[in-house]
Amino acid sequence: KQEVTQIPAALSVPEGENLVLNCSFTDSAIYNLQWFRQDPGKGLTSLLLIQSSQREQTSGRLNASLDKSSGRSTLYIAASQPGDSATYLCAVRPLETSGSRLTFGEGTQLTVNP
Amino acid sequence: GAGVSQSPRYKVAKRGQDVALRCDPISGHVSLFWYQQALGQGPEFLTYFQNEAQLDKSGLPSDRFFAERPEGSVSTLKIQRTQQEDSAVYLCASSLVVAGGSYEQYFGPGTRLTVT
């Protein structure tokens, strides 16, 4: 059974700092990995999706890397801003049919202080 | 529509009541998923549809939970005889099915269910 772990569970940083969020998964047979952002009381916003054949994806100040063989992904946020405060979730999709479920980690709650 | 929509956004039910939660997926999305998110946890899979067919319901926690998608578009998640442990946010997601595609899932805002 796939298990996804995110470290740290919570993180508080001053504005402007670069930071790294970690995600690990136990079964490397994945199709892709997604990073999501969740604001309080809101749904999930997809940030980056990395296919299993890719090593990284970038969008603006965000960069996500994937090391499938070691079961790890990182989300790098450059020059953090107070508006980045949210819970960040990673999720993996198994290497199966098109309808497969996502398995999520429990998230990292990020607070960026002005 | 532009995205996945869910209704109601908030639902308070007394223990023992039945509730129905609605999901409108993105137009043309074949796959539809329901997830349950308890406070402080990541979402957990409940069930999956491809068009009107429910292909995986292994995540439904009990036989009080029932989901349908009769015409392959709108889906309803029904919970009978609600219990306090059913209190959670229920998220719906949809995705395209294109061979070789990313199968990226797009999520709705969720329905927050509180059972008192």
How would you portray this structure in words?
- With 114 residues, chain A is an all-beta fold.
- Chain A has no helices and 11 strands.
- The mean pLDDT of chain A is 93.
- In chain A, strands 2, 4, 5, 9, 10 and 11 form a 6-stranded mixed β-sheet that branches. A 5-stranded antiparallel β-sheet of chain A has the order 1-3-8-7-6, with no helix packed on it.
- Chain B has no helices and 11 strands.
- Chain B has strands spanning 5-7, 10-13, 19-24, 31-37, 44-50, 53-56, 65-68, 75-79, 88-95, 106-107, 111-115.
- At the A-B interface, strand 4, strand 5, strand 9 and strand 10 of A face strand 4, strand 5 and strand 10 of B.
Keywords:
heterodimer, A: 114 residues, 58% strand, globular, B: 116 residues, mainly beta, 7-stranded mixed β-sheet, 4-stranded antiparallel β-sheet, 11 strands
Briefly, what is this?
The complex is a heterodimer of chains A (114) and B (116). With 114 residues, chain A is mainly β. Chain A contains no helices and 11 strands.
Total number of helices of chain A: 0
Any low-confidence stretches of chain A, pLDDT <50, length ≥5? none
Quaternary form: heterodimer
Residues in β-strands, percent of chain A: over 45%
Shape of chain B: globular
**H/E series of chain B, N to C?**
EEEEEEEEEEE
- How large is the count of helical segments of chain B? 0
CA(first)-CA(last) distance of chain A: 41 Å
**Class per helix and strand makeup of chain A:** mainly beta
**Count of strand segments of chain A:** 11
What coarse outline of chain A follows from CA principal-axis ratios?
Answer: globular
